[in-house]
Amino acid sequence: MVHCSFNKRHLTLIWAVMECLFFTGIVFGWSWLSVTLRRDRYFLDLCNITLEEDVPDVLPNTVLNTDMLTELETPIIRTNINKNKSRRKCRPRKKWRTTTPPYEYEVYDSFPLNDSRYFCDEQEERLDIVNAIVLIIRHGLLLPLGIFLDAYGTTRTRLIAVLTFAIGTLVMTFSNASFPWLVIPAFSLISLAGLVILLTNIQVSNLFGSRRNTVMGSLIGAYHSSAIILLAMKETHSSHMETQTSFMFLTIGVVPILVSTIAFLPKSRIPWPLPAGYGKHGEAWKESSGSKRSNGQGPSKSSSNFATFRIVACSSVYIWSVIWFAIYNLRSFTYDGNVRLMLMKYGVAKENVYTYTELYALLLLTALPFGPCIGAILDWRRKANAANDPPIQQMQNILFALVVTFLFALANNILPTIPSLAFQVLGFVLQTGERVAVGTCLCAFVSHVNFPIEHFGKLIGLHFAVASIVSLLRFPFQSFITTSLHGDPFYINLLLLVLLLVSCGHPINLWYHCRLGLIRDTSNSERDRNTANEQLVSEDVVIAAEGTP
Q: 6-39+120-294+314-546, what's its fold?
């Protein structure tokens, strides 16, 4: 039974879900943000295109066609172009196609850029690179903030996240076509702050006992559905509200985050398993078991905590989890980078690719119902087995969720090989389900009682740090596809399938540990923690002695 007040417990959950929905995963709406960035001419200097101010007497939102161009007294030309230099151009639709005079100059269709009716390869590639860099920076910076979370607790960490979020949104207000690279630090800070807010909100699930993982999945589903914010920005931009103004309003989001930090969440952390007297009669839990050890206990205690973390991080269960997450993260990065190539491979015109990429972003909103479903799998109560301890049964549920995640990923590897746009749209949905399943399984695994809760921030931060390094492979993969494979990602998908099979080592290793009874509850007492650490050290010796089953 949970002893926290019913009203406050559920109000805290609702507030946390709304925070995750509106502030944490904004970067997932990049497809919609790229629409507004194209309209605002970010990185347009990379394109070979004539701007609409070169065309006299043309009203805004008017698309120039061939007949209109022939009526102009002076042709729109670009002179001094090297005829021998091959260069990709922005490609208008067929009805806007014009003839190209020979030799001295080239004529281009010119049309207003406040709609998205043109395609520029260079601009698209640069926006994709910016998105990848933002995600890699975010993943890499989570480890130091995870260390800070373990050392100083929830309140101080969220205050840093609030400051980071505010700085990121304000930097975005100063970005424009003249300073497009400001998008990188701005969105790196915004997305990093959102991820930290998510991790501090995950502990709210500890208040819900047997439904803990369902609540955790709901929070992660809301996190992946945050793309709705950039959809709203895109629509307001169509109503002539500037992108910078939208981000200025988004800065106000720090207010509800501060309210939650002060009114609902503890200074240190919500422990798990929940103590019997936690929150009883409305009393707040001021210090968790980890905060006492991290504040003023001297260097010997800090050294002991670091030794405990090192033992846990070197265990085979944890190492395989890091490898598993890095592979799935690389798959997600590569999939996002290949969406345009995959669509064009199956006959979608370049000018219509935007429609499908925006549909992909829209289907990310299905993460909201996916999250509780994955969490329900983790909370599934099977028939009691006297031979299994509760920690082993919980880990077996995680194992089952890992199998479901593998099936999502396997289907996502097969669907791109089917020459049908309907199957590619289905792949968008499965990709969303895979992302939610990966995030939910990761948080459920790291917060399992087999791992000391005082190292939660470091353990999950190390996952993201390694994933950020592995994600750098996205760039040589993309270069290899565009240069050597002529835009066909088939062989890269084949390589990802091999890596997916390698990642199966994590669920297999987890199953093996459950079978040998090596999963333990490290949360009962300090003595139990020391015993568990000794078991982790001798884990490989035990496995070798038992032999393969």
A: Growth Hormone; Chain: A; (1.20.1250)
